């Protein structure tokens, strides 16, 4: 399968926005305790936050294409400003953040996510990042497998118990 990865252009806005929404719908659908939801206004608020992080923090969005059709995206940015509090507990760092990655379901499991991650890693390295952070829900097993297969390791684990 010949996959192209290219930088985002304005013509990709609707694809990325709908993919962003599909990503959240997917996470809602696999949540085993049904705590994640999507209320009216979700897309507007969180997509604007995503776009602002990219725009204001040396970010990039890459699009994966198959036969000229967009099939996935990844967004990431540089978070090189550490708080005084953060510096009390971790070494100084220029951290790259992978904020979102999505592939249309029929293209998953074909190493395309790995290619998107590699492209974003190259970009973050070119911006002198010395570490990359990505997070996901513990129940998103395919994402966890992908991240671990390309060298990421678990750093924080949060636990929740539904009591009512």
TrEMBL record:
<protein>
    <recommendedName>
        <fullName>N-acetyltransferase domain-containing protein</fullName>
    </recommendedName>
</protein>
<dbReference type="Pfam" id="PF00583">
    <property type="entry name" value="Acetyltransf_1"/>
</dbReference>
<dbReference type="InterPro" id="IPR016181">
    <property type="entry name" value="Acyl_CoA_acyltransferase"/>
</dbReference>
<dbReference type="InterPro" id="IPR000182">
    <property type="entry name" value="GNAT_dom"/>
</dbReference>
<dbReference type="InterPro" id="IPR050276">
    <property type="entry name" value="MshD_Acetyltransferase"/>
</dbReference>
<dbReference type="GO" id="GO:0016747">
    <property type="term" value="F:acyltransferase activity, transferring groups other than amino-acyl groups"/>
</dbReference>
<feature type="domain" description="N-acetyltransferase">
    <location>
        <begin position="3"/>
        <end position="164"/>
    </location>
</feature>
């Amino acid at each position: 399968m010949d996959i192209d990865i290219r930088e985002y252009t304005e013509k990709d806005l609707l694809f990325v926005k709908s993919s962003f929404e599909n990503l959240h719908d997917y996470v809602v659908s696999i949540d085993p305790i049904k705590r994640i939801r999507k209320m009216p206004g979700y897309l507007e608020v969180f997509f604007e936050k995503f776009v602002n992080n990219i725009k204001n923090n040396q970010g990039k969005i890459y699009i994966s294409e198959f036969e000229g059709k967009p099939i996935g995206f990844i967004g990431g940015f540089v978070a090189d400003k550490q708080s005084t509090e953060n510096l009390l507990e971790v070494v100084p760092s220029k951290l790259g953040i992978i904020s979102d990655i999505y592939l249309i379901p029929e293209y998953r499991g074909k190493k395309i996510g790995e290619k998107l991650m590699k492209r974003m890693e190259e970009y973050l390295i070119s911006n002198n990042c010395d570490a990359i952070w990505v997070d996901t829900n513990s129940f998103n097993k395919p994402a966890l497998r992908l991240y671990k297969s390309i060298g990421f390791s678990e750093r924080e684990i949060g636990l929740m118990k539904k009591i009512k």
